[in-house]
Write a structure and sequence with these properties.
By secondary structure, this protein is of the alpha/beta class. The chain is built from nine helices and 15 strands. The strands form three sheets. It has a six-stranded mixed β-sheet with strand order 1-2-3-4-5-6, with helices on both faces. It has a five-stranded mixed β-sheet with strand order 11-12-13-14-15. The protein has a four-stranded antiparallel β-sheet with strand order 7-8-9-10, sandwiched between helices.
């Protein structure tokens, strides 16, 4: 069905007959210098895969038809050079239209009056950072607590509180099973469990396999020279993971040893989405700055290099750096 749909869309757009073939969950067809592809739902990783397939096919044009996510894909496609030319088209019935480029997300401010609670978390040695308007506390890149307002409409007091737990479900379980604990007691218990399994050189335990991109960032912030920086501070990505189980690149902003601005984006096992997200994050926080993409040596793959070379050079330099991970390989 995808193949028949792609053939019809290509015929409607360019009056060309193609013979589509399946490629994973997508459909693709080559005609002359063009790679026609159809994706029902596009993501940074699937856009990277489409670009990689086009580059390896020797085509000079990519036409990507999408049912969902076209505006975001159009924004990401704009960060790449003119060859291959990328055309993102949203499917409209039996036809298509150019996808309108969606603006980057807005960085939301944190809640007022959070400073005392942020101080409490920082005093425990935790990294406290703001994402999507929420203050999160991390231990070696793994979320162990959040600052949450308890809404009055659901029986809360309308004030900010520290909720401990590794992700939302663990916070909910902590509240249900240990309701008599103070926030400090709950946080102590969570930190005791996590720190016993997640530490430099640890391996094997499930807690060591979560949020590895963020763990890599945490390590580099302690030792910024390891990635050629003088200083690094965490910044919000344009694509935030929905849960602690979802691996997504993590970002930091800082200066190089020469005093220049640098956006550093860390990935672990996510080569296809690392470049599009890295370019997007740079455009949001520091347009034109040097972009460094950092991965463990085993994840320094050819596909990442190919996508990095396809980035539009006028938007800023892109470097690939490998960093030994803090966990045991």
């Amino acid at each position: 069905m995808l193949g028949a749909k792609l053939a019809a869309l290509a015929r409607d757009l360019d009056d060309v007959e193609v013979q589509p073939r399946p490629l994973g969950v997508t459909s693709t067809a080559l005609a002359d210098d063009t790679n026609y592809m159809l994706q029902e739902q596009v993501s940074p990783a699937s856009l990277g895969a489409a670009m990689l397939h086009t580059l390896r096919s020797g085509c000079r044009r990519l036409v990507l038809f999408v049912d969902e996510g076209g505006p975001v894909a159009a924004r990401l496609a704009g960060f790449f050079s003119a060859e291959p030319a990328i055309e993102i088209r949203s499917v409209v019935g039996a036809s298509s239209a150019p996808a309108q480029r969606e603006p980057p997300p807005v960085v939301l401010p944190g809640p007022d009056a959070a400073a005392p609670l942020i101080g409490e978390l920082a005093d425990r040695g935790l990294e406290v950072l703001l994402e999507e308007g929420v203050w999160r506390a991390e231990l070696l890149g793994l979320e162990v607590a959040r600052i949450v307002r308890w809404p009055e409409e659901t029986g809360g007091d309308g004030e900010l509180h520290i909720e401990a737990g590794v992700g939302r479900f663990d916070r909910d379980a902590t509240a249900a099973m240990h309701g008599g604990e103070s926030a400090a007691e709950a946080l102590d218990r969570v930190l005791s469990v996590v720190s016993a399994q997640r530490y430099e050189g640890a391996a094997g335990h499930p807690l060591c396999r979560l949020a590895r991109s963020r763990w890599l960032r945490s390590s580099a912030m302690v030792h910024p020279g390891s990635v050629g920086a003088d200083s690094l501070s965490p910044i919000e990505s344009t694509f935030v993971a929905d849960s602690v189980r979802e691996e997504r690149p993590a970002a930091a902003l800082g200066t190089t040893t020469d005093g220049e601005a640098v956006v550093t984006v860390f990935g672990a096992g996510v080569p296809l989405e690392l470049v599009p997200i890295g370019l997007d994050v740079r455009e949001l926080h520091a347009p034109g700055a040097l972009l460094r993409l950092v991965v463990p040596p085993r994840d320094q793959l050819t596909v990442t290099e190919q996508l990095a070379r396809a980035a539009e050079p006028a938007l800023g330099e892109v470097e690939l750096v490998d960093l030994d991970p803090p966990w045991a390989s």
